[in-house]
Write a structure and sequence with these properties.
The protein is of the alpha/beta class. Helix content is 64%, strand content 11%. The protein folds into two domains: 309 residues, ABC transporter type 1, transmembrane domain (ABC transporter transmembrane region fold), CATH 1.20.1560.10; 247 residues, Rossmann fold (3-Layer(aba) Sandwich). It is elongated, with a radius of gyration of 36 Å. It binds adenosine-5'-diphosphate and magnesium ion. Adenosine-5'-diphosphate binds next to helix 10.
Length: 579
């Protein structure tokens, strides 16, 4: 929580105003009993109507002034608290944007969402309260006690007796409630996780008839949150009546014992009334502080969760002095690269060395889980390698800024991702100033033009969130066109062509060959037919290179490659292709 106070910095001026208003408000409140005492003693007791009117008028004015201070104070406090939380959310979002894929493997989207929305909200609520009470409550407590003592020392034993009870109740509730708060946020995470899984996996849920199972799962998590919420609120709601009871008991005691002292002429009537009012103010601010103390641990739990995210140092950072090279040929070189995922037992890739040259197509083939996607992700520096070197255009990728590196690459991921917006907006994602003819050209090469034209509004047609209103193959082609618009030096297609039918696959690759004459092309593929004409084929097996060469060479030298080929092509086809 303390660490988050730095987000209040832009509001220094506001805080000063809040402080002044709070002092003014407390002063007004603490002055009122004094006036009251005067009215009773000098006005009512002396039958001085004129005095009652003037003092009463002053009293009303002071009360109104105090209330105005409170109102304006709350207004400014709310603005400060909401503003602070807005900066918090932006900061969280910014931090997450800098995450490398390694960090995304560690924190789930569900918890990121809870932390950015619900946890920041908890902080906001406490901030409003804290800004309102942090000044007024201590002033009222300290100055109120002094002024009460000033009225009558004897009656103070009532306060002395009641305060430990009050503090005891507060502490008891605090000990009970605090563990529940952290548990609450964790349970909210879980609720969000289930919701998230359900929404993204809705097709699977329906297809496997698991709706009722999912409902039960959600219900269980939902009930968890509810039960905990009820327990928390029970504790808080017990507090209010208990506190009010204590305050009322003290009032009765003050009037009872004070009354006796007034009768025995030890105390003026006005002083007794003033004392009563001070006592109520003191106990009331204690009550508010108690409420605050109950809410702070809750915000503290949230603050901890927010800080956890803010404190994550992205694994991958730009070098202090990035090398900018003017070479734009698009060479990619792996030199003895070994990479292990965090927490994995064995490396996903080991001892990988190869070169992909401009104007050439490098194909990567291998069984699922052999490390193909991992390999291409490393070129983009989504993860950092443990051993070896990856060079792009002769410079180690580690020594370039991530932005420069990725500007060289047109990447088509294994799983196509589109954003909500028009087709044109999606295609311009990597090059915002691309003209319509440029988009059209890229779409034509990606074999996407005809179906885009068929969509209502063509390039202005809306793509639904997640691209749900286009087919898998269409999504892939849009994703390819998006990479083509960039005209990069290096093209990376991660298993992009498997979602296309053979005919489209062939036509697309033919058009691509024209387009990518000067670029390096790296194609990950499942189908031998996709890569048969590649200049070099890398056969991956269990994270290692099992063979490297052209189709013909590999057929002779690489058993694994032969197995892959024979499992896909019939014998005559094999001969024809080899010939
Ligand atoms: P391919 O693309 O060839 O099917 P991948 O490169 O996706 O294979 O995966 C290679 C290996 O690395 C697999 O064993 C997989 O389980 C593991 N792996 C992939 N992604 C991650 C990740 N984010 N965290 C940990 N292990 C991973
Ligand atoms: Mg893959």
């Amino acid at each position: 929580m303390i660490a988050l106070l730095r987000f209040l910095k832009p509001y220094r001026l506001h805080l000063v105003v809040i402080f002044i208003l709070a002092v003014a408000q407390s002063a007004a409140n603490l002055y009122l009993p004094n006036l009251m005492s005067d009215i009773v003693n000098k006005g009512i007791a002396a039958f001085n109507t004129e005095f009652i009117w003037t003092a009463g008028g002053i009293m009303a004015a002071v009360a109104v002034a105090g209330m105005l201070c409170a109102l304006v104070g709350i207004y400014i406090s709310s603005r400060v608290a909401t503003g602070m939380c807005r900066s918090l959310r932006s900061e969280l979002f910014r931090t997450v944007q800098l995450f490398s894929l390694h960090e995304f493997d560690m924190v789930s989207p569900a918890t990121l969402i809870t932390r950015t929305t619900n946890d920041t909200n908890q902080i906001q609520q406490v901030m409003v309260m804290m800004l309102g009470l942090l000044i007024t409550a201590p002033i009222t407590l300290v100055v109120g006690i002094i002024l009460a003592l000033n009225q009558d020392v004897y009656l103070s034993w009532i306060l002395l007796a009641i305060m430990p009870v009050l503090i005891g109740v507060i502490l008891f509730l605090l000990v009970k409630a605090v563990p529940l708060f952290s548990a609450m946020q964790v349970k909210l995470d879980r609720l969000n996780l289930i919701l998230d899984e359900n929404l993204t996996g809705v097709r699977v849920v329906r297809a496997f008839n698991r709706i009722s199972h999912e409902e039960q799962r959600f219900d269980a998590a939902n009930r968890d949150v509810t039960d905990l919420g009820i327990r928390v609120n029970q504790l808080i709601s017990v507090m209010m009546p208990v506190m009010m009871l204590l305050i009322n008991i003290s009032s009765v005691a003050i009037i009872w014992f004070g009354g006796h002292r007034v009768v025995s002429m030890h105390l003026e009537l006005g002083a007794m009334f003033a004392f009563l009012q001070y006592a109520i103010q003191i106990l009331f601010s204690l009550l508010m502080v108690a409420l605050l103390f109950i809410m702070i641990p809750r915000a503290e739990a949230s603050a901890k969760r927010i800080n956890e995210i803010l404190a994550i140092e992205p694994d991958i950072r730009n070098p202090a002095r990035a090398i900018r090279n003017s070479d734009t040929s698009g060479r990619v070189e792996f030199d003895g690269v070994t990479f292990t995922y965090a927490g994995a037992e064995k490396p996903a890739l080991s001892g990988i060395s190869f070169r992909a040259l401009p104007g050439k197509t490098t194909a990567i083939i291998g069984g699922t889980g052999s490390g193909k996607s991992t390999l291409v992700n490393l070129i983009l520096r989504f993860y950092d390698i443990q051993k070896g070197k990856i060079l792009v255009d002769g410079t180690e990728t580690k020594k370039m800024s991530q932005k420069d590196l990725r500007a060289k690459i047109g990447f088509v991921p294994q799983k196509a991702v589109l954003f909500a917006g028009t087709v044109a907006e999606n295609l311009r994602y990597g090059k915002p100033d691309a003209t319509l003819p440029e988009l059209r050209r890229a779409a034509r090469i990606a074999q996407a033009e005809s179906f885009i034209e068929d969509m209502p509004g063509a390039f202005d047609a809306q793509v639904a969130q997640g691209g749900t209103n286009v087919s898998g193959g269409q999504m892939q082609r849009l994703s390819i066109a998006r990479a083509l618009v960039r005209k990069p030096e290096i093209y990376i297609f991660d298993d992009t062509f498997s979602a296309l039918d053979f005919k489209t696959d062939a036509m697309l690759r033919k058009a691509l060959r024209e387009e990518t004459k000067k670029s390096s092309v790296i194609i990950v593929a499942q189908r031998v037919s996709t890569i048969i004409g590649a200049d070099q084929i890398i056969v991956l097996d269990d994270g290692k290179i099992a063979g490297i060469g052209t189709h013909t060479e590999l057929l002779k030298t690489c058993t694994i490659y032969r197995e892959i080929v024979s499992s896909q092509l019939s014998a005559p086809e094999m001969e024809r292709e080899t010939a």
